[in-house]
Design goal:
single chain, alpha/beta, OB fold (Dihydrolipoamide Acetyltransferase, E2P), inorganic pyrophosphatase (n-terminal core), 3 domains, five-stranded mixed beta sheet, 18 helices
């Protein structure tokens, strides 16, 4: 395979002036993120801002729950089976226990019950004496279930953050910052973030301050794992939650960190997104999410160790199933190479991992993807999207052929009759083409700055650490370096699909990783030198490491300038002072 970049590199057109006290490269990155110079210091400090008006119905939810607490009514927390739902449920269960409530948690089984609030579960909870059910990370589409809850004598309080449908459930309270008419400015909260706001109101300032660390670390786990934008309130609570997690982790979180081979004090958004989050998600993806919830609630180290081990085993199963789904989905996708949206289905694929398959297809083809697990006459699908295509709204336009659906701009889920799948594929193809104005998307990578080789140092890594936590909405800074030496290149990973190598930039040599580029090992070895877009960070041992986001032969950057990828770039950033080498 020839050495070639996989995406078009897009550079900023101008430099951003750095205000006093902020490094030049950090200011450049913030400018690329649309942060005004006057707002940079506040962004970096991640200070809590004025929350603005509370979410609609929050006061009504609090009033009903306080009444239940006063009278001893049974409360059930009904959460989704992903990290967001599990962590948000753990937040509320911990708070209700603190307040002396009669409380239980219910997480539906993905395979037996499917997503969201369901009628059978409500009937079961009513039989068990539930008087108030509080949903977490689900419920905004539960129109019929809300009516059933009322008939069963249950006051249903929906807390959710998903894209609301045109017809909302008539629940006792509906707390969702995205609902029409909601004046809250915290529109991008995860489901656990919404649960956290409810917890704050229930506890009051003093009791919340005493439990703040444990609740924030749960919210941080959910916020990162659910891939909501790490800006504004999400940035504030995630940074505070990470500090609490590293300083005084919950018993279950500590056990998970230990079993994962991570080190307390070095847990950031990357470790949540790629290590802890997948393990917590694995339980619900394989069968039942109960073990993950128990892990986040237990105070027993022995139980936590056992549960963490079980999640590790589930995650190994999840990885194997993901490889199966991705391989099959890629084969099906090749059957329609000119599609605007990739829609593939198979009865051999487990519903719990089709979302991971959809994510991989988006990476591979740069277009929205839906991967569907067929079970009898029904398919359960998961979508992932690209900029410019709000996939939940696209599914709204297919409502007449779907059994149910819901989600966000970039990710959504649905159920569909098997005989409707071909029509769904055709409809999504048309909708995506229309939303993109008939212009086929080209996979791109937005570069924050080009840096001189001598600027890529340990000092730079420390400066860029001020931008953490990084993730959706605030990705790790992507830096262009030209003509760097690569050597000691080897394939790694279960399927040899990743590359590990050493990179010499200027006077320094770094360990580097290139994910899903294992097939370029020979070509990279033959080339010996590359132009590359990299991110910089520190490994578990504290040494600076690079991730090769994309690379090509020397001259790639110059060629992209000629075809319009690298627009007239901002000045190359160089070190302001020589690096001191011990």
């Amino acid at each position: 395979m020839a050495l070639a970049p996989q995406r078009l590199w897009i550079m900023p057109t101008k430099a951003t002036d750095a205000p006093d006290g902020i490094a030049a490269l950090v200011a450049q990155v913030l400018g690329c993120r649309g942060i005004a110079v006057s707002e940079m210091a506040a962004f970096l400090a991640a200070r809590p801002a004025d929350a603005g008006p509370p979410m609609r119905d929050l006061d009504r939810a609090v009033e009903r729950l306080r009444r239940a607490l006063a009278t001893g009514e049974r409360i059930v927390v009904y959460g989704d089976y992903d990290v967001d739902g599990i962590a948000g449920s753990a937040i509320l269960v911990r708070v209700f226990r603190e307040l002396g409530a009669t409380v239980a948690a219910y997480i539906p089984n993905r395979y037996e019950e499917g997503y969201g609030i369901n009628a059978a579960a409500l009937r079961h909870l009513a039989t068990d004496g539930a008087k108030v059910v509080v949903s977490v990370d689900c419920g905004v589409t539960a129109v019929n279930e809300a009516l059933l809850a009322r008939d069963l004598g249950i006051d249903l309080i929906v807390t959710d953050h998903h894209h609301p449908p045109s017809h909302l459930p008539d629940s006792f309270a509906l707390v969702n910052p995205r609902r029409p008419g909601d004046l809250s400015i915290e529109k991008d909260l995860a489901g656990a973030g919404v649960a956290l706001r409810l917890a704050e109101e229930l506890l009051g300032p003093d009791r919340y301050a005493a439990r703040r660390g444990e609740l924030l670390q749960l919210a941080a786990l959910a916020t990162v794992a659910d891939v909501v934008p790490l800006r504004d309130a999400n940035r504030v609570l995630t940074r505070a939650g990470l500090e609490a997690l590293n300083r005084a982790p919950l018993v279950g979180v500590r056990a998970l960190v230990d079993r994962s081979g991570l080190k307390l004090g070095r847990i950031g958004s990357t470790e949540i997104g790629f290590v802890l989050g997948p393990r917590l998600n694995a339980a619900g993806r394989i069968d039942d999410a109960e073990d993950a919830l128990r892990l986040l609630l237990t105070e027993d180290p022995a139980e936590a160790k056992e549960l963490a081990e079980r999640l590790e085993q589930r995650n190994t199963e999840r990885q194997e199933l993901t490889r199966l789904v991705v391989a099959g989905a890629r084969e099906r996708a090749e059957e329609r190479p000119d599609a605007w949206a990739t829609v593939v289905a198979d009865a051999a694929w487990p519903a719990g991992v089709v979302g991971l398959g959809a994510s991989r297809l988006v990476e591979d083809y740069g277009r929205p993807a839906a991967v569907i697990a067929i079970d009898g006459l029904e398919g359960k699908g998961s979508c992932r999207s690209i900029a410019g295509v709000h996939i939940a709204e696209a599914l709204d336009d297919c409502d007449d052929i779907l059994i149910k659906h819901g989600g966000h701009a970039m990710a959504a889920g649905f159920s569909v009759a098997v005989d409707r799948i071909p029509e769904l594929a055709e409809r999504l193809d048309v909708l995506v083409r229309e939303r993109l104005g008939g212009v086929r998307p080209v996979p791109t990578i937005r570069v924050d700055a080009e840096i001189a080789p001598e600027a890529l140092t340990a000092r730079l890594a420390l400066e860029l650490a001020d931008l953490e936590p990084c993730g959706a909405g605030n990705p790790r800074p992507r830096l262009l370096v030209r003509d760097v030496r690569v050597f000691d290149i080897r394939q790694v990973g279960a399927d040899s699909d990743h590359l590990r190598c050493k990179v010499t930039v200027g006077r320094f040599t770094f360990d580097a990783m290139a994910f899903r580029r294992g097939d370029h090992a020979d070509a990279m070895t033959d080339a010996g030198r590359v132009d590359a877009v990299v991110t910089i960070g520190t490994g578990l041992r504290g040494f600076v490491e690079l991730q090769l986001e994309d690379f090509g032969p020397v001259g790639t950057a110059r060629e992209m300038t000629a075809i319009g990828g690298l627009r007239p770039p901002a000045p190359v950033l160089r070190p302001s002072a020589p690096e001191v080498v011990a």
